[in-house]
């Protein structure tokens, strides 16, 4: 591994342990000689947010990454997590709704819109969540991602039949829409169709290479089907993506 990779892995270990100051020190070691790369910049931003050093905006020395839409979205999610840490879901809803720069109808901001909907639901504002999504859908009715999010919201509200219609519409628009695929995998698992569920979860893991949730869900399905060895292989794959994921490591140790 390169020096940058080693520094990043050590900083992530400190982050996972809640040692934010130590993680930031490791990450900034020799930073004048080797400016931070993309993932390092995001981790540094997350650490600064946890330490109360960002004031809700990307600091100047990381601004060269701002033209990247992926960086902007992931930075926004970091600020959202900081708001949640400080004030719970009401603070998340307030922060997103007060933003003058977020276009919630943009596909790249779907994770932010999902955070808003969850925050509104947790704050006992289901009507506001539905209104917010309806407004966004009106602006972009052919978005597979928004249709998937519609299915997710309807499912959270206990409207299973309507949720299935929304998920089916999402998959018609895009066969790889993540939220619809997740719902499909869950439906297969609940029906005892283990192999079909695993196939969909693996596809979901392919299209979301940074995320480990699909791998963890698939491992759980396999565990319940008494196929622990196959589940362990998926847990190891999750740890390759996210070496300091405590839940995955604990489940693997218990296999």
Shape: globular
**Main beta-sheet strand count, sense and barrel state:** none
**pLDDT under 50 segments (min length 5)?**
none
- Per DSSP, what share of the residues sits in E-state strands of 2 or more residues? under 5%
Structural class: mainly alpha
Number of helices: 13
Helix percent reads: over 70%
Q: From the structure provided, what is the oligomeric state, counting identical versus distinct chains?
A: single chain
Tell me, rounded to a whole number, the average pLDDT: 90
Distance between the amino and carboxyl termini: 29 Å
Radius of gyration: 20 Å
Topology, number of strands: 0
Order of helices and strands: HHHHHHHHHHHHH
Structure description:
The protein has helices spanning 3-16, 20-27, 38-50, 69-98, 110-122, 126-139, 144-156, 160-173, 178-190, 194-207, 213-224, 228-241, 246-254. The protein starts with a helix and ends with a helix. The chain is built from 13 helices and no strands. The model has no long low-confidence stretch (mean pLDDT 90). Helix 3 runs parallel beside helix 4 (69-98), helix 5 (110-122) runs antiparallel to helix 6 (126-139) and helix 9 (178-190) packs antiparallel against helix 10. The chain has 255 residues and is an all-alpha fold.
């Amino acid at each position: 591994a390169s020096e940058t990779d080693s520094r990043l892995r050590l900083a992530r270990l400190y982050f996972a342990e809640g040692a934010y100051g130590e993680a930031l020190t490791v990450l900034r070691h020799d930073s004048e000689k080797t400016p931070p790369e993309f993932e390092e910049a995001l981790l540094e931003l997350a650490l600064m947010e946890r330490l109360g050093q960002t004031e809700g905006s990307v600091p100047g020395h990381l601004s060269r990454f701002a033209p990247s839409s992926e960086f902007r979205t992931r930075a926004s999610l970091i600020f959202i997590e900081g708001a949640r840490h400080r004030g719970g879901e009401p603070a998340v809803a307030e922060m997103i709704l007060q933003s003058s720069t977020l276009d919630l109808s943009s596909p790249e901001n779907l994770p932010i819109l999902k955070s808003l909907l969850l925050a509104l639901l947790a704050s006992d504002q289901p009507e506001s969540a539905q209104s917010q999504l309806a407004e966004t859908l009106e602006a972009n009715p052919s978005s597979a991602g928004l249709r998937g999010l519609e299915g997710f919201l309807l499912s959270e509200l206990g409207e299973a039949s309507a949720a299935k219609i929304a998920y089916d519409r999402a998959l018609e628009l895009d066969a790889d829409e993540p939220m619809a695929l997740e719902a499909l995998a869950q439906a297969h698992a609940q029906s005892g169709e283990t192999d079909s569920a695993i196939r969909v979860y693996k596809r979901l893991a392919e299209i979301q290479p940074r995320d480990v949730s699909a791998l963890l869900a698939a491992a759980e399905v396999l565990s319940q089907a008494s196929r622990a060895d196959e589940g362990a292989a998926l847990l190891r794959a999750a740890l390759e993506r996210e070496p300091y994921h405590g839940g995955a490591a604990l489940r693997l140790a218990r296999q």
